């Protein structure tokens, strides 16, 4: 949109027939495309042969056509043709007659348009969408000079010729479908039945989605104010709810740059540029756009009062608050703290309690990101938000408290009670976004506690829940971060149960819903890499797992270090693995990541096993068990018990090992992964073999061990864990040999040999591995 003084002297778009009518007080343009829309509206008003279904489809198309950017004539006619072929032909014919005629034909068209003030019952009445659009176009057209009208007419000719080409005669009429021809008698006699039928047929026979054409439409002229507002609102809505359907970052930035070229003071365009830059983590452009947004906002609005609810003061304090949020997202904690202090100072001067509550919310968020204890600040924020009637901030505070409680070792019943209270608040105020976040967080908490069944149920609740928000722009409301988190949990849970086909289907769906350029794509990228890494490690193909370590580290530093240590341990690089694990443990203690600390302790204990230091590993394992039980991490506690039982077995007390194994078997078999189930049963079989060694009923003990090994082999086979399967077949062959089962021994020996030929040589003694 050009400025006023430019329009008075020279309009750069006049060569394309675009008239900037804002000079005369109307914030709209007259373009050849809008003349085509006027022809369509006029045809809809005078047409008597249009069916109810066609009219309904065209009525749904009117508002997007008016508010959206200009389309080429080919796209425009194609969109109309999807709704009504006869109407599209009539529009094309009238445009052809106008183009091949003279200037007076266009003048006559504007003179014969329905007057919005003439008939209140008409579709083009002054209070209707059609009437307002016609009125704006008529006023804009009537203000044009003769030279501008001539340029508009020549632009209309080029608009027609460029899209359809010069035709020697009028366009040919489309064939009439006899099945679609309805007489007036049929319409009047079966009106109710026809409406019911239309409701059923419309989803299948609907027109092409306008959003698809809108995204492909070329921007050949600057947008009017209404078109720009519609474009910005649509893209902002898509970025929040369904980023996949929004324009790609580069394309959206190009559109915004073109928009700002004609109106550099368009504040909303600067803010959308800020949101778009945040998608690609561009700190320079995002900061630049955010500052320009508030500069323009201050210049264009308010009365200049520094201490009022409106004006410079309000814009300044929210500018500082948004700048603090920007620095928080990029990890610039010192700059974020300075910006927050500035926002708090201005808000206190103006007595703005709402802004102060937002500042307090970001303050405890900043403390959390820095690794400090922010529970007191969070509780104060929840109390004040409830006092001032801000349910959104109060719910976010409670969610943050629940997250801190989960990482701090709070009992599950306390956390679930708190989440239940927040859910009541969400449903009371219809906070759909927070309902999704609450369910996603509940899924994550259950999974952290090792309750995979409960995690699956919560994930299914979220995936099958309908949104409370009104669906607009043809958007699926479930393309948010909460759904990405839940789907990643589902993919990992299916992979843990050996259902790699289902897991790959979920990941494929994630890739389609969240393409790589979207801001939540890193969630499924990390999930996919972790699953591939685990499969390679389970197969004993460590050379395939090693390349995934660098990719995982790029997305998550701690996960990358942990898996680097696992690969080094598997490749017998004990010293380097120990060094990496110690570095990771220091990092985890600084960030208070208890889960990773326990995993590091377990892996370090396995390193001690490599040098037969089973007694040295016991203090580490006991410390890990205490941490797991303090934080109610059942899955990690069960895995720690397995390590303790194995250490006791190797120290020569298999009876004690078998006793403590019974404590871990129930949660592992109920909620554990297939690999954990197989490892637990394999360890039980080893304990049974050791216990039965000196007893008279040795044969009975060995037979029980064989049955246990059969169950373990079934789990390893379903998981595709060939490395563990090789160990299991070896023990099965030894047991069958001791029992005198020659046929079974030979079968197990054959299976062992087949698996052993597919894998590299065993890296260590079987006795030193769980």
From TrEMBL:
InterPro entries: Apc5, Apc5_dom, Apc5_N, TPR-like_helical_dom_sf. It is found in: Cytoplasm, Cytoskeleton, Spindle; Nucleus. Residues 270-369, 468-510, 608-665 form the Anaphase-promoting complex subunit domain. It holds the Pfam family ANAPC5. GO terms for biological process: anaphase-promoting complex-dependent catabolic process; cell division; positive regulation of mitotic metaphase/anaphase transition; protein K11-linked ubiquitination. It comes from the Eukaryota. Pathway: Protein modification; protein ubiquitination. GO terms for cellular component: anaphase-promoting complex; spindle. Keywords: Cell cycle, Cell division, Cytoplasm, Cytoskeleton, Mitosis, Nucleus, Phosphoprotein, Repeat, TPR repeat, Ubl conjugation pathway. Residues 30-161 form the Anaphase-promoting complex subunit 5 N-terminal domain. Belongs to the APC5 family. Component of the anaphase promoting complex/cyclosome (APC/C), a cell cycle-regulated E3 ubiquitin ligase that controls progression through mitosis and the G1 phase of the cell cycle. The APC/C complex acts by mediating ubiquitination and subsequent degradation of target proteins: it mainly mediates the formation of 'Lys-11'-linked polyubiquitin chains and, to a lower extent, the formation of 'Lys-48'- and 'Lys-63'-linked polyubiquitin chains. The APC/C complex catalyzes assembly of branched 'Lys-11'-/'Lys-48'-linked branched ubiquitin chains on target proteins. This is Anaphase-promoting complex subunit 5.
